[in-house]
Specification:
- It is a single chain.
- This protein is an alpha/beta fold.
- It has a single domain, classed as 2-Layer Sandwich (60s Ribosomal Protein L30, Chain: A), CATH 3.30.1330.200.
- 17% of the residues lie in helices and 34% in strands.
- The strands form two sheets. A six-stranded mixed beta sheet has the order 2-5-4-6-7-10, covered by helices on one side. Strands 1-3-8-9-11 form a five-stranded mixed beta sheet, with no helix packed on it.
- Helix 2 links the parallel strand 6 and strand 7.
Length: 174
């Protein structure tokens, strides 16, 4: 059962948010970026990040959370401070589209990083939706771990070959 949503919090590029309130939903829109939704089902706490690249150098005044390696650690630490147990964390991951053929396959690099990071940290990824050429809108209920996504239709100037997204169970498309 999806709880009644009274407050939607948008997580934008380079941000993360951890919550436990049952009436909160976290929302983001992704292209080649990735959002990882982590939650501890036993404690009822979860969060979402939104990162642009796997890793990189920050400029003075820059935000390190725009890099996956930092965004993941920041989110994990925030959840642990809220009472989550590291060994109980479960992930759902979204994004990593290759939005334009003219750029390097940033989406592929983000997907690879995410899978490798979760594996190295022994965090089970119970659902993922990566790839393709379209943006996604993701809604995540951190208290329950329920995630939904909508593929945003695109209007491209050039012919494209769609890359199929890999879907695992427990993702509601709408």
């Amino acid at each position: 059962m999806i709880p009644l949503v009274r407050r939607t919090i948008t997580v934008t590029q380079g941000e993360f948010r951890a919550e436990r309130e049952p009436d909160v939903v976290l929302s983001t829109i992704l292209g080649s970026c990735v959002a990882v939704c982590l939650y501890d089902p036993g404690v009822g706490v979860g969060g979402m990040n939104h990162f642009l690249l796997p890793q990189g150098q920050d400029t003075p005044g820059g935000r390190s959370e725009r890099y996956g390696v930092n965004a993941m650690e920041q989110l994990i630490n925030a959840l642990l401070r809220m009472g989550a147990r590291r060994k109980s964390l479960v992930a759902k991951a979204f994004g990593a589209a290759n939005m334009t053929e003219r750029l390097s396959p940033i989406g592929d690099a983000n997907a690879t990083f995410t899978r490798d990071f979760l594996l190295a940290e022994s965090i089970a990824c119970v659902a993922e939706s990566f790839g393709g050429v379209n943006a996604r809108k993701v809604l995540f209920h951190p208290a329950t771990g329920t995630a939904r996504q909508m593929i945003v239709p695109g209007d491209f100037d050039e012919p494209r070959k769609p890359v199929p997204a890999v879907l695992k169970p427990d993702i509601t498309l709408f």
